[in-house]
Design brief:
This protein is of the alpha+beta class. It is built from six helices and 19 strands.
Length: 432
């Protein structure tokens, strides 16, 4: 009996050992398979990387080839330009990459500048006398910005001289910058087109009940947004909408407002975010108010440009033979076109395309700041930059365009004020 038990136990141990050995063998095989699979995957990954790199190199080569062809085409288009103009065109060709013709950006600045505020006459740390407020603020310098900015208080209403009563046709442009910690809560920079008030600084931006069109520009680090709303004469809100804003570099946005009778357009950078045909009311006397209400972070307002008059580019260039525009803008002391010039350039290009026999002379003008000789040279370069944009971006035949510059020699306004200087900085198109 003991023998049987011993034999049985030995048999069991042998079976267990065999079973464990089988399991271990299977595990070893699985491990080998996994190692093999991982190795193959790694090899495939490396192959994919190699293929991706090769594909990228092919694409880059294709792009270079395409760019080369485009450059050759541009050179061919401008081969009839004089040698002087060629130098100016080639020098600014790379700089004009940002001038893109888009169907959404059709903003055209008003004919006559009435308010231009870059805070040049206000000392750092002071509140500008051109504004009134129920709060506070101070003019500051921001690194990388050519002009000064008004740092707004976290809560307040701001009324700028000249905007107490606005006509049915006007444009307003300004830059807004926010610090990276600007709160996503509360609201951002508000602009109210509001029925004229006897005491505008008592206007309550939270519980107001007045005829108005309001917008809210709210920059945030990740994703900003813009809002629009409108109220009628019975204090009823009849319109409200919201749109996302692309996150800009350094939390800076350029805002353009265009009112034409009842129509209200809002552009942020080169994007049209709102276009409402019936937002304002005819016969209502409106004024413009800025406001801020933020939880944390700082908000800055600058480069304010208010102009009136709806320009009739077609009639003035073709019928009258001369078009003067202050809507083609450049960086300070530079021939670098600003992106917000696209709307005007596109209109002029359309006129020239529809009238293929018309030739024009483009004449640049500057204000009187700086040396006279330098201003003359700058005005010529700016005219050449406009020509370059029309040729390269809008495909206008270069032989139809001549350029010249008058510098500060022919002012339309006194050069003693910021507004006068803004009006003197202009581009003329003269029908030949």
């Amino acid at each position: 009996m003991k023998k049987k038990i011993v034999l049985y136990l030995c048999s069991m141990i042998t079976g267990i050992c065999f079973s464990q050995g089988t399991i271990l063998e299977r595990q070893a095989e699985k491990t080998k398979e996994k190692i093999k699979q991982r190795t193959e995957n790694k090899i495939e990954s490396e192959i994919d990387k190699g293929l991706d790199k090769t594909e990228e190199e092919i694409n880059q080569a294709g792009k270079k080839s395409s760019n080369k062809k485009e450059a050759e085409a541009a050179t061919s288009t401008t081969e009839q330009v004089s040698e002087t103009d060629k130098v100016a065109t080639n020098a600014s060709a790379k700089k004009q990459d940002g001038i893109v013709a888009t169907s959404k950006f059709d903003f055209v600045s008003g004919e006559k500048v009435l308010v231009y505020e870059d805070f040049a006459s206000t000392e750092i740390g002071d509140f500008p006398v051109q504004f009134n407020t129920n709060s506070s603020g101070e003019v500051v310098r921001i690194e990388g910005e050519a002009n000064k900015y008004l740092k707004l208080a976290s809560q307040g209403i701001y009324l700028l001289d000249g905007l107490e009563k606005v006509p049915e046709n006007f444009t307003l442009e300004f830059d807004v910058i926010a610090t990276e910690n600007y709160s996503e809560n509360m609201s951002g920079l508000k602009l109210y087109l509001v029925k004229q008030l006897d005491s505008p600084l008592t206007f309550d931006q939270h519980f107001n009940s007045s005829t108005q069109v309001g917008i809210d520009i709210h920059p945030t680090l990740n994703q900003g947004y813009a809002s629009i709303w409108a109220m009628d004469e019975s204090d009823t809100e009849f319109l409200r909408n919201e749109a996302k804003m692309e996150a800009p570099m350094h939390m800076k946005y350029h805002v353009s407002i265009w009112r034409q009778n009842t129509r209200y357009r809002v552009y942020i950078d080169e994007n049209k975010v709102f276009d409402v045909p019936r937002a304002a009311f005819k016969g209502v006397s409106y004024q413009l108010l800025f406001a801020n209400y933020s939880f944390e972070g700082d908000l800055f307002l600058g480069n304010i440009r208010y102009a009136v008059g709806a320009p009739d580019t077609r009639s003035k260039l073709i019928t009258e033979g001369k078009l003067v525009t202050r809507g083609i803008l450049f960086d300070s002391n530079s021939d670098q076109l600003k992106p917000e010039s696209v709307g005007v350039l596109k209109e002029i290009a359309t006129i020239l395309t529809e009238n293929p026999t018309v030739k024009v002379k483009i004449v640049g003008h500057t204000d009187a700041d700086g040396e006279e000789k330098a201003n003359l040279e700058l005005s010529k370069k700016r005219a050449a930059a406009v020509k370059n944009a029309l040729v390269v971006t809008f495909k206008i035949d270069a032989s139809r365009l001549e350029t010249d510059g008058k510098g500060e020699a022919e002012p339309t306004d006194p050069n003693t004020t910021a507004v006068g200087k803004a009006n003197n900085r202009r581009v003329e198109f003269i029908k030949l």
